[in-house]
Amino acid sequence: MSSAATRPAGPDDLWSVDDHLEDILGSVRPLEPIELQLLDAQGCVLVEDITVPVSLPPFDNSSMDGYAVRVADIAGASEEFPAVLEVVGDVAAGAGEPVRVGPGQAARIMTGAPLPPGAEAVVPVEWTDGGLGEGPVTGMRSRSLAPEGSEGQVRVHRPAGARAHVRAKGSDVKAGDLALEAGTILGPPQLALLAAVGRGSVRVRPRPRVVVMSTGSELVQPGEALAKGQIYDSNSFALTAAARDAGAIAYRVGAVADDADTLRSTIEDQLVRADLMVTTGGVSVGAYDVVKEALSHAGDEDEPGSGVEFRKLAMQPGKPQGFGSIGPDHTPLLALPGNPVSSYVSFELFVRPAIRTLMGLEDVHRPRVRATLTADAPLRSPKGRRQFLRGAHADGTVRPVGGAGSHLVAALAHADALIVVPEDVESVEPGTEVEVVLLG
Questions:
Q1: Is-above-0.85 flag for pTM?
Q2: SS3 label, residue 345
Q3: How far apart are CA 207 and CA 40, in angstroms?
């Protein structure tokens, strides 16, 4: 763990939210870059600047299905007095050497096809008779059905200026331009650009592998029948989904019973596929808080520097927290409280930034804004605790959603923000401007 954070003087003293987060981020390092094929790189962070080797588009091409023409040949054209041009052939997308367009000539051209030599503009087929000798048409006849359409004459009913309906070479990006900067997250548009400039693979930091496990003998897999005293395991689903939302490859482990040996064994089994481990539950001061029991002395002589430290934070919800590293590779582990709201708030404040740091991102935090509190009564907050209340944010205002209880998971489903009440504030009146963490 990092020594950068200001540690409390005694084991029972409270850590601040900021010091706990600083300790985590001071210990987590970005993953080493690897070369991946494009589709395998989706969601990863680019570690190199990408410059454009060839201009896009690489040649002047048509933006319409129509006819490539010389401007002078169609000047003054109208439906009453159309310009009559000789069709010298077809120019299709991907075709080889195109035909040449001379005076009084036109070439039938398809969208994306290169502008043939001699042509200065493209007139859409809807401005012509399509070579049928009648009025304006609405489309071209298929070449397979009417190959003669690439010959004969075409009547053009409207004039066009130079470069009309022509996409210029390099109008998207030019050779030598910076296409993507290092630090870019690769989504579908970015992968499309990489493919368009000819990159088959790219150097990135891989998506972190995060293992999520919940603890508690009372937890039951959703879909199974509940016995007396049991509840469904929701935390592992919430946190696994949250890890994926943060950019990780997340693995959910079924709930582990309240047995320290079983928990240690499960964690050891999961280390092989983890860049980060997250547990939820078992970190407080109860007789069955097995995460604390199992991991408080996880480090040994064979793994110097490893171990998980459990601490109390000056926050609500989420006072009990654990952080450290385990295993031969010193895999970071964050131990979160078991109450659903506490675990989710803790994830957003501490685990998400750790995941984003592993990805190599500069900005690892959720956005924060100022908003006006709308509420029926003042918000109360315990002295000396930084409180994070669920809220709904819209149009510069935020309103509380549900109560302050850390077990109220139903209210969490309707919140899209956290209202932050500082440690030195015990009451917040409606109409007060507050800090808000935006969750989505």
A1: no
A2: helix
A3: 10
